[in-house]
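Lab notebook: predicted structure, single chain.

Context: the supervisor wants predicted structures on file for every construct in the current expression panel, including those that have not yet been purified. This is the next one on the list. No modifications to the sequence; it matches the entry in the shared construct table.
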Amino acid sequence: MKKTNKLLMAMTLVAAGTQPAVAAMELDLIEGVDMSVYGSLRLGAESVKPSNEAALNDYTGFRDAYSRVGFNASTALTDDVTASITYEVPLDLANARVGTPDDKGEKVRVAKFQLSGDWGNVWIGQGWLPYYNAISYKVDLLDSYYTGWATFANFRRAETIAFSVPVAGLNVSGAYSEGNQNGSTVEHRTQLAVTKNIGNWALAAAVDDVEQALDVTYYGLAAGYTSGPWYVGAKYETVSSDKTTSGYNEDGSEMYNLLVAYTSGLHTYQATAAQADGFGESIFHAGWRYQFHPKTRVFVEYYSEEETAVIAEERQSSLNNWPTGSGGGEAVTVGLRYDF
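Prediction complete. Output recorded below exactly as produced.
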């Protein structure tokens, strides 16, 4: 009964998003300071079939798709400099708790102070890292829990100082992160990314150097192309590592991703294929999205992986100590997303 009540509560929260009366909340508390509360509620009902049924059972249940709620405040310090703060927490609706559905123990998604202007921006705290923004985001555009896993990128990290500035027609961004996070053994990481828009093309190159017990450096190249209703995104990543044994982060590992999307009216159709060494191997992910309200969409997606990566036990993630030899599998998700 307790589990059922949690699921009903989660579905009620998301279903509330179908009401047009719900809108972004602008706060007028301090003169000269723009403040707002925002969020995104995302929940899917999924049917999961692991390849190795002796290790994991088939099941049908609910899984959150990276819900969050946040607060932002900004004010102009001068004609050229705006200061802002952002604080955002993750919500796992399927488990009715604060936290991410991948069970990384992350209780805060974003917590940063930023200065910005025509010259670019600089921020300190926890936020999205340049490598992900430049490389991985170009193929991380589907809606369900299963989107965006086929990458070496670390999405966000605390104890970070980062910048983004225009240089000679390019956008150059970088970040330095210090200390461990979520039980990792990383001592620090340094990132640098360069992006360039040329007509319909968005091009990027980035590097992520990670100092840890077995040092790792990730290199990435990515491109996005938009033409009318069509979008095509692709990326390539490789690893230079002290790790010589087979598996994730093995020296010389590679990831290839290709995503194609087509939008017709309120409908968007997407499909992505990836080859991810040490994390899923052959991966296929496709979906249909229907944006029936400016802030609300429904989605249906199919995901499959050849080897162990994301397929996991009900309402848990692959980061939970799941059985050896689970061997990938497939999942079908029907979900609802509401943004405010």
